[in-house]
């Protein structure tokens, strides 16, 4: 650079300040414009409603727009199976509904098969390169047609009552439809906030007053039992609680057991069921812990 | 164009500058008052409203009933409420409410009267910042510093509230300023003023405990020669301002806090223990929920960069680097002198060591937030006493930019020169003004364009809100026009006291009834913070649906979800 140019540059260097002021103003104006109109959202919803299959995942990006996505799309599309999924492995396709150019990292490595734009809303379809084929989903089976729950030798009765919920620190809601055990304890489908406050649909089965046994009938076995388990975030984040053990048996034969320790979060597990592959039968799950103090435990599992 | 003599300011800073500072303060308070009704009540405000009324009514009763009110039981009954915080602002909140709402009906809303003293301290901080900048560097620097301080969105938000964070910012700045003046004047009047200012600081918030770490080393350094001379003749000379700070200051605190009259040591011990063992609340930072130590050391720098307008930060850096450069050149000259070598061009000596004082004030205000045990749940409000200093260095930076502009445009006539200066001020303040004005009433989640604004803050996983104050916006947008008559509402993070105040003032429909659990409610609210997500999920189960009936948003970002029982 010549001396003259350098001198001019130094002379006008002060202009950086008003320039930054202007850029900040323009950026503010651009950033505060609504990303999408009501019409954009409605058009995107109509397209998704027409094109999403029941087995597809529908997800909103960025993550923080999720409440708006649920409001705009309704719980028939943004249902619990999708919103509080255990992970993405079971979905053959994902329909990502995004604003502001956002994208969910969960679909990195999936194949993009289409993009639709509805004003400020972009709908992208992703193909899962290796979707798991779920044979039986235990969370969907926790009702009297498919499950029996026992505490000790006593069977817990299926009941429809009012849900129990509270404010911050209450723990997962106790569902209205649940197996209720005499003297305490229950099991039913709820949603747990894991250590990262991510929702997961699961079987809420705290080991209150002794081990809880759940017998599922008519389970279709594959080569593995795939699942996750967690303790409600505020009950496990201090890492002072007792471990919780989840054991699986079928026909009196152990399939395996997994242990959840405080701090593990939404912990995945996989157990080999290749010896039962192709069979349909009973699967018994036992939840136990040396202590029942704040063991607000929830698990999900499927066969695949 | 030349200004008429009547409008020309003398070179010496004086009463006219107090008028300028006062006008800036008044304009800011008026702006705050204009937005008071659109800002809901955070959790803490409800507590301070009640404590303020209790404290002031005791003082009122003392003047009416005399000694009877001095009974320990009467004092404890009045001042036992929220005794973990000193009383000055709460007493002023109560006095303002009693005088301006109950007695003289100046404000229709009690809450606005409660909030006025806090707003006035924001004005005070602006006033003092202007004076400080005007005396230290130039009127231009003071003006820009005052404006840039006022136009920090999170300062603007907190300045609305009947809380202590902006008041302690004002008292801290006032105390530092009075101390600075006292070093120049060296009179007993100024020394006593330091003691009084420090006492007011102590009576405002516990940040005042750290102020001696600013004022003592500075006073000792400024007066080092006289201290050394006294020592050489066998005398100990302590700066009068420091003596006053440690004597008059505690006396002012004692006088303003009747709770100490019964049991001074017990009251102080309770205060200290409460603050030193303060509970950790949940707060999100970079997508992670923090609920205990260790606190992330990057919290303060990231939050400052993300919440203070970038132009302000840029000018602060320009000003701070300039002052550091001056300090380095002075040190170098000193070293050359000691080595009996020619120091060359040396910056003029500042007998008041202004740079040192401001640097100490800044560092001491932010220092605790680099300790892993310091809770971070308060977001930016807990280090706000550093912001007037940040703005003052920005003012100095603006002076440098203006000088550079004049050097670049030497041929401009007087009129064009002034217009260019006005344009430069406008270009510097317009973005902070736009960001601040747009942030209301969501100022707690105001992130600057550098990080993408409010949506950028959400992308980064930065705190969106706390204290549940956005419930009022939920009421304005959904509950008031659309909730069924007599509907039960679960309000989660909003206190029942705050809700009751909002109903009393007609901000929330009076027929709506609060309940304690989503399962009991026809409508349930979730004020979005990371750790509140668990309640969202509970509502999904309790209501049988995960779809809100309405979501309050700002710049697309959800603030409150409202669920309706199916």
Overview of this structure, please?
The complex is a heterodimer of chains A (304) and B (566). Chain A is α+β, with helices and mostly antiparallel strands and 304 residues long. Chain A has helices spanning 3-11, 16-31, 38-51, 66-77, 80-83, 233-236, and strands at 57-61, 93-98, 111-118, 121-127, 136-137, 147-151, 154-160, 177-180, 186-193, 199-204, 212-220, 224-231, 244-250, 253-260, 267-272, 280-288, 297-303. The N and C termini of chain A lie far apart (67 Å). The mean pLDDT of chain A is 96. Chain B is mainly α and 566 residues long. In chain B, the strands form 2 sheets. In chain B, strands 4-3-5-7-6 form a 5-stranded mixed beta sheet, with helices on both faces. A two-stranded antiparallel sheet of chain B has the order 1-2. In chain B, strand 3, helix 22 (496-504) and strand 4 form a beta-alpha-beta unit. Chain B is globular. The N and C termini of chain B lie far apart (71 Å). At the A-B interface, helix 2, helix 4 and strand 9 of A face helix 16, helix 18, helix 19, helix 20 and helix 23 of B.
Assembly category: heterodimer
Shape of chain A: elongated
Structural class of chain B: mainly alpha
Structural class of chain A: alpha+beta
Q: Cα distance, first to last residue of chain A? A: 67 Å
> Which spans of chain B have pLDDT < 50 for at least 5 consecutive residues?
none
Total strand count of chain B, please? Answer: 7
How much strand of chain A?
A: 35-45%
The total number of structural domains of chain B is 2
Radius of gyration based on Cα positions of chain A: 25 Å
Task: Please state the overall shape of chain B, judged from the principal axes of the Cα atoms.
Answer: globular
Radius of gyration of chain B: 26 Å
**What portion of the residues of chain B fall into strands of 2 or more residues?**
5-15%
The largest interface is: A-B, 65 and 70 residues
Order of helices and strands of chain B: HHHHHHHHHHHHHHEEHHHHHHHEHEEHEE
